[in-house]
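User: Before I run my own analysis I want an independent prediction to cross-check against. Here's the chain; please return only the structure tokens and, at the end, one sentence I can use as a sanity check.
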Amino acid sequence: MFNNPRDAFAIAQARLSQDFNTINEDDWIKAAELLAEQRDKVSPVYVMDEVFNLMESGEYAFATYYAGDYLLMLENNKDLDYCYPQEGVNEFYDAFCVPKCSQNKKGAEAFINFMHEPQVAFENCEYIYYHSPNITVEQNEESSLYGEAVIYPEEELTTQFFKNLPQNIIELENNLWTQVKSGKLSVDSKAQDRKIYIECAVLAGAAVLVIAAKIISNSKKKKEQDLSDLYD
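Assistant: Structure tokens:
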């Protein structure tokens, strides 16, 4: 299983037919509960690059990972195969970004333009073994990945893009992920939290009523005492 929250949550979100970029906190909690259920039932090993040794050696039989890396693992273990889940996957492109604080914006843009030169983009793709956003590379019959269905699937896939999430959602995602991996989040956690919230709300409401009643009673007694003093 992916050892990072964005990819791991996307798997649960796809199963739940959720938007990968939802800002509804309840959606993230439901996805976390599904990941916690997976943890309890399957006891997954959370890995990133460790997946290479585990899958190439045949020590593990199934892993979720990136398409380009599957091809690299396949070179060392011909028994491997792949599939795209029908529930959906994330669609992505590797990208060059220029920081706002860059002191050489023109130089950075020139480098990006250089990397998009057909021959340079081709050689870069041959090195990283990933889908190239450069159409000249995809159509280059000399490419090692030309016609490779893993990288350029012919069938139409259900896909979503990852977008930048609001800070509060990022913090929630990271917190839930920590709970999932540590075993502190159970599938009943949300119901338990709601029960606690309701009980606290009831107790708080009762306390307010008691205080209000006490204030009213004291006020009434004071008025009665004042009237009594007035007529004495």
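Sanity check: The mean pLDDT is 85.
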